[in-house]
Amino acid sequence: MPARTTAVAAATPLKAQLSPWLTQAFAAEGLDAQRFMDRFLQWKQIGEDESYFFGKDALNLRSKLIRHVHMVPLASPQDLAKWDTNWQRGRKRASDRFLFYVDGARHGYLLLYIVNDPGAHDFLNSPSPDSQAVRKAMQTMADQFYHFGVVTDGKTER
């Protein structure tokens, strides 16, 4: 589907790293992690409205470091059709599939976690112990990466 003019890329080279969770998930699924990171970095360079693969970007509630970006929906043909229509018309795109990440400034970006659709919006506020544990671990990883450039498993603090 991608075919729209894009803005000029920034001159400063950007870098991205995957959390241990995403490294493991990409390997288990046989997915190309480098290609995913390249698409993410391209999106960060050209802007929110210029990438087909990534949509609306927002700072997470209750966090000053963790952001989430809406990604192309996979589970629903109707949601994908809406995404495609909004892409073609140059509109903001939202989905129920998120990539959580940290902008670590001088350290680059740390791509933390993906919640596939449906479920990303529910995950943000879920009181379940599993969701709370993941959110707490993401915050620990975000703190360590932002302040020290260290990628941790989210279980230990510096």
Brief summary of the model shown:
By secondary structure, the chain is an alpha+beta fold. Helices cover 39% and strands 18% of the residues.
Can you give a write-up of this model?
The chain is an alpha+beta fold and 158 residues long. It has helices spanning 20-29, 33-46, 77-88, 120-125, 129-148; strands at residues 16-18, 54-59, 66-71, 98-103, 109-115. Helices cover 39% and strands 18% of the residues. It has a five-stranded mixed beta sheet, sandwiched between helices. Strand 4 and strand 5 (109-115) form a beta hairpin. The longest helix has 20 residues, at 129-148. Mean pLDDT is 91; it is low at 5-10.
Number of strands: 5
Strand content: 15-25%
Shape, per Cα inertia axes: globular
Radius of gyration: 16 Å
Number of helices: 5
Summing up helix and strand content along with how strands pair, one would put the structural category as alpha+beta
Mean pLDDT: 91
